[in-house]
Design a protein that fits this description.
Chain A is built from 19 helices and 9 strands. By secondary structure, chain A is of the alpha/beta class. Chain B has a domain at 70-258: MetI-like (MetI-like fold). The chains are: A alpha/beta (363), B mainly alpha (297).
């Protein structure tokens, strides 16, 4: 009998141990966001952060002085954000930094896509900040106004797509045009020679981010729709030899592994893997910080966050977070993998914040 | 031991009953969720059952819901897996049960168990980073794509060898000694005893092992998600990339699809389909065991 009790006790201790093991993994993610900033402040940052100070240092200093300083320790209350999955990692990085520096409230960041984000901001009115990888549409502004919100736009950065091929690929050394790119990713072409007779008669192996990613949507919008209209999405999705993955690493491995492969994803991810892949020139323009800044690279898109003056007046923590966001976004953006917005765009965002704050104050 | 009821006894019995009930309740819960969500999918009006079972294109984003490309990939990877695992697993089982010295058994069995304990994600990368390059060097990089069903299938095969080997070995060892001795008495060689007496006698157990292993191969997820490819592709060529049912479920559930969207609900319909396949396989396996079991007493 004693033995049964011992067995029972053993079972109970085991189950206790198992349940005790449970919480530890859940704690880990909370600790994670603090690590990335420490690891990598170099890659695109070194190119990106240097030019602006030499160009217009006076402006920068003036505006940093002009912004009311934020002390995260003094900020309390929760902040709710939702929207673009592309902006998500950027907002997440800044939220993590905000919390590291002492902010004690909760920041909710839902990655639901730009459109769904605006629906929650403008129709349901349940979010304080909306993350967006495109400017707000006039229909969305109208529904915002209908619930008494006047969206204020803050430009926080730029994302660019890199179209990549295997380093052994020679026939695309001169790059492609947007029209060729659309045809390469369409169901009209099975072999490379179907797009251009000078190219080899080998099958095109396509690697694309998954259909629920903003990157896919952007590619369809910027490349497929101009060539195929509303059938753009269907044209790419019914193409043969198409691999779709949310995991960019799957795409990198795929393109690296096959001479006849082509793929696309965020420039940042290419930058991390640039010794394994070749980025194509699009319409003759190579993707780089300079061409993205100058607006000549065709596959670059702006990243925004939106809020509203009355929300900022009601919840000062939202204004403080946006202030903090705009102050430190250029420290974080390269780590997340995007390009910094031009200094004037960022200054414009800071000016918009100051204006919204003073409006709110005068009301 | 007296018959007097002891409080400790009751607690333990209750606890054990609870443990047994947990697995049954879990299964019921899974079925409930799958059926519920699949009803949302089939009831959405965006497709009919005929399209689901006969369509040759699966691309939820543009409203193409034909299960064949995914199902075919599942069949191909499982078939390749069984092609590898069945002969190897059976040979291992025959060796362990009929030929191996106790010393060899003592070493081999734990090694097999280690093989069974390796996380499947490791097999996935083993397939992608070792088997695929090997296949490409043998057949040529133009024929074997970087993601392909053959390498995933081979890795699945290696993965289920221990399952087939240990279940078959149990069946072979259960064959009574008298049968072997009778065959030896008639002048049979060791090989003849093993292949023509012991294996047929244990056939029901071996068949059950094969079916359980098949349902394991059909349900294998990580290996195919990593090595087989990430795009639905209707093909029988194992050197091409194609996405299996499980691989598709993993990929879609890993993305940020909103709940209640048709794409999201579709993965429950796929899971239900998969559940039905493995469930049917398990029922067949039980029936086979019952029907073909040879009882020696």
């Amino acid at each position: 009998m004693r033995r049964t009790y011992a067995l029972f006790a053993l079972v109970m201790t085991l189950s206790l141990i198992i349940s005790a093991c449970g919480p530890t993994p859940t704690q880990a993610p909370a600790a994670q966001p603090t690590q990335p900033p420490a690891q990598a402040t170099q890659p695109p940052a070194s190119e990106a952060t240097q030019p602006p100070p030499t160009e217009e240092p006076a402006m920068t200093v003036e505006f940093v002085g002009g912004m009311p300083p934020v002390d995260p320790l003094a900020v309390s209350g929760d902040i709710v954000t939702a929207g673009s999955s592309t902006v998500f990692p950027l907002t997440e990085a800044l939220a993590a930094r905000f919390q590291d520096e002492g902010y004690a409230g909760n920041i909710t960041i839902d990655s639901v896509g730009t459109g769904a984000g605006f629906e929650r901001f403008c129709v349901a009115g349940e979010t304080d900040i909306s993350n967006a990888s495109r400017p707000i549409r006039s229909s969305e502004v109208e529904s915002c106004q209908a619930i008494g919100r006047e969206p204020v736009e803050f430009r926080v950065g730029t994302d660019a797509l890199a179209v990549v091929v295997n380093p052994a690929n020679e026939f695309l050394a001169e790059g492609v045009t947007l029209e060729e790119l659309a045809k390469i990713f369409s169901n009209e072409a099975a072999n490379w020679s179907d797009v251009n007779p000078a190219w080899p008669a080998e099958p095109i192996l396509r690697f694309s981010p998954g259909t629920d990613s903003g990157t896919f949507d952007y590619f369809v919008e910027a490349v497929m729709t101009p060539a195929y209209g509303d059938a753009g999405e269907e044209t790419i999705l019914s193409a043969a030899n198409l691999q779709l993955s949310e995991d960019d690493n799957v795409l990198v491995q795929g393109v690296e592994g096959d001479q006849n492969a082509i793929g696309y994803f965020g420039y940042a991810y290419f930058n991390e893997n640039k010794d394994r892949l070749t980025a194509l020139k699009i319409n003759g323009v190579e993707p780089s910080t300079a061409s993205v800044d100058a607006g000549t690279y065709p596959l670059a898109r702006p990243l925004f966050i939106y809020s509203d003056a009355s929300i900022m007046a009601e919840k000062p923590q939202v204004a403080d977070f946006i202030n903090f966001y705009l102050t430190y976004v250029n420290d974080e953006i390269a780590d997340v993998g995007y390009f910094p917005a031009s200094q004037s765009a960022l200054n414009g965002a800071k000016a918009a914040l100051l204006e919204a704050l003073s409006n709110a104050g005068s009301e | 031991m007296s018959r007097r009821a002891r409080p400790g006894e009751t607690i333990i019995q209750g606890f054990l009953l609870f443990c047994g009930a947990v697995s049954i309740l879990t299964t019921l819960g899974i079925v409930l969720v799958l059926v519920q969500q699949s009803t949302l999918f089939f009831g959405s009006g965006e497709l009919d059952l005929g399209e689901f079972f006969s369509g040759t294109e699966w691309q939820p984003a543009i409203g193409k819901f034909g299960i064949w490309p995914l199902f075919m990939a599942t069949l191909v990877t499982s078939f390749v897996g069984m092609l590898v695992a069945l002969p190897l697993g059976l040979c291992v089982a025959i060796y362990l049960s009929e030929y191996a010295s106790p010393r060899a058994r003592g070493i081999l069995k734990p090694v097999l168990e280690v093989l069974a304990g390796i996380p499947t994600v490791v097999y996935g990368y083993f397939a992608l980073l070792f088997i695929t390059p090997l296949l490409r060097s043998v057949f040529g990089a133009n024929i074997v794509q970087i993601y392909n069903m053959a390498s995933a299938g081979i890795a699945i095969g290696i993965l289920i060898i221990p399952l087939i080997a240990s279940m078959s070995e149990d069946a072979l060892s259960a064959v009574p000694r008298s049968l072997r001795e009778g065959a030896y008495g008639l002048g049979a060689t060791k090989l003849e005893v093993a292949v023509r007496v012991v294996v047929p006698a244990a056939l029901s157990g071996i068949a059950a092992a094969v079916i359980v292993a098949t349902s394991r191969a059909v349900g294998e997820t990580m290996v195919v998600a990593i090595a087989a490819g990430a795009g639905p592709n209707l093909t029988l060529n194992p050197f091409e990339a194609a996405e299996t049912i499980t691989g598709h479920i993993v990929r879609i559930s890993g993305g940020d699809l909103s709940y209640d969207s048709i794409d999201y609900n579709s993965i429950f319909a796929l899971a239900l389909f998969l559940f039905v396949i493995t469930f049917v396989l398990n029922i067949i396996s039980r029936a086979v065991v019952r029907r073909f079991r040879e009882v020696y007493e």
